[in-house]
TrEMBL record:
GO terms for molecular function: magnesium ion binding; terpene synthase activity. The keyword Electron transport does not apply. Pathway: Secondary metabolite biosynthesis. Residues 1-156 form the Terpene synthase metal-binding domain. It comes from Rhododendron griersonianum. This is Terpene synthase metal-binding domain-containing protein. Keywords: Lyase, Magnesium, Metal-binding.
Length: 214
């Protein structure tokens, strides 16, 4: 983990130097560094679980995995690029784990657990959400998957409700979280589009290359 963390800090330093050179606001990079620290600490937790062959409860799994799935880190990085509307209050709101961010992370995490379980079963990996649910509730894999899909449905309800409520931060920032949730749905809805990149090829081509006739 040390080389990974060092690489992340190097990226942080590059961000900071670039922003300082442009004489722009620099507080945002400090929040990004905190997000780096959080995810590395949570990776360490997963490493210990893997060493001990520990299968967590779903509550333990989600508490840690909603960070390691990288959604909070990616959202913080997205806010860094949003300029003045990404105020200190906006980053503090993000650090408070708002409901919409946790719902977005849940969609990412649970979809990933469902679609990547086959490839992760073939290598040494910390227990997935499916394994955790099966052990905790004494159910079969299909039953566990069915229940995890309900978790995703409830997370989308949370996102829809939060999008209808006023917030203390710019709407443009909130939409970034919504966009990430939509992305995760595309990548993982039918297969593991992250590890099996050929599965997302058509979507990428449709987005960037093929024009839509009007």
């Amino acid at each position: 983990m040390k080389p990974i963390y060092k690489a992340l800090l190097n990226v942080h330093d590059e961000f900071y130097q670039e922003i300082m050179a442009k004489k722009e606001i620099n507080y945002s990079v400090q929040y990004l560094e905190e997000a780096y620290k959080e995810i590395v600490l949570c990776y360490d937790v997963e490493t210990e679980w893997l060493k001990k062959r520990y299968v967590q409860t779903m509550e333990e799994h989600l508490a840690n995995a909603l960070v390691t799935v990288t959604s909070p880190l990616l959202t913080t990085a997205a806010f860094v690029g949003m300029g003045e509307i990404a105020t200190p209050e906006a980053f503090q709101w993000l650090q408070s784990q708002p409901r919409i961010l946790m719902a977005c992370s849940t969609i990412f995490r649970v979809f990933n657990d469902i679609q990547s379980c086959k490839t992760e079963d073939e290598r040494s990996h910390v227990a997935t959400g499916i394994e955790c649910y099966m052990k905790q509730h004494g159910v079969s894999r299909p039953e566990a998957i069915s229940e995890l899909l309900k978790i995703i449905e409830n997370a989308w309800i949370d996102i829809n409700e939060e999008m209808m409520r006023p917030t203390m931060i710019s709407r443009d920032l909130v939409i970034r979280i919504l966009n990430f949730a939509c992305l995760y749905g595309v990548v993982y809805k039918y297969n593991d589009g992250y590890n099996q990149t050929e599965c997302t090829k058509d979507s990428i081509i449709a987005l960037y290359e093929d024009s839509i006739p009007i």
